[in-house]
């Protein structure tokens, strides 16, 4: 079974940058799709980024496109989320997630923006808090 542990969250000023890491266990990590989601108080879980097994394909919703970058290092069993130009509205608990059943993430277009359903990801980390101050 794949297990995920996020790290790298913290407090950052608006306009700043932060890199989140997700350490994974399990021999199948290099052959599964991965994603990042976030959840702010009172809001539903929101898709942030997804990446295929090789790192060759990445997907972002309009809310973070151009500011966030997802990447993976399969040799280190780690996926990253590099966040730049952070805004107060980025404040949330960020979750790393795995879709062990697919090489590629399930991507849909919703309201003109890329979307990946949380239900497709069956393994989740514990979350890491990101707070962006104005």
Descriptors:
seven-stranded mixed sheet, 134 residues, 13 strands, mainly beta
Folded structure, characterized:
The protein is mainly beta. Strands 2, 4, 5, 6, 9, 12 and 13 form a 7-stranded mixed beta sheet that branches. The chain has strands at residues 3-7, 10-13, 18-25, 33-39, 46-51, 58-59, 68-73, 78-83, 92-99, 108-110, 113-115, 123-124, 128-133. Helices cover 0% and strands 49% of the residues. It is globular, with a radius of gyration of 14 Å. It contains no helices and 13 strands.
- The total of helices stands at 0
Rg computed from alpha carbons, rounded to a whole number of angstroms: 14 Å
Which quaternary structure do these chains form?
Answer: single chain
Order of helices and strands: EEEEEEEEEEEEE
The percentage of residues in β strands lies in: over 45%
Largest sheet: 7 strands, mixed
Share of helix, binned: under 10%
Mass-distribution shape: globular
Number of strands: 13
Structural class: mainly beta
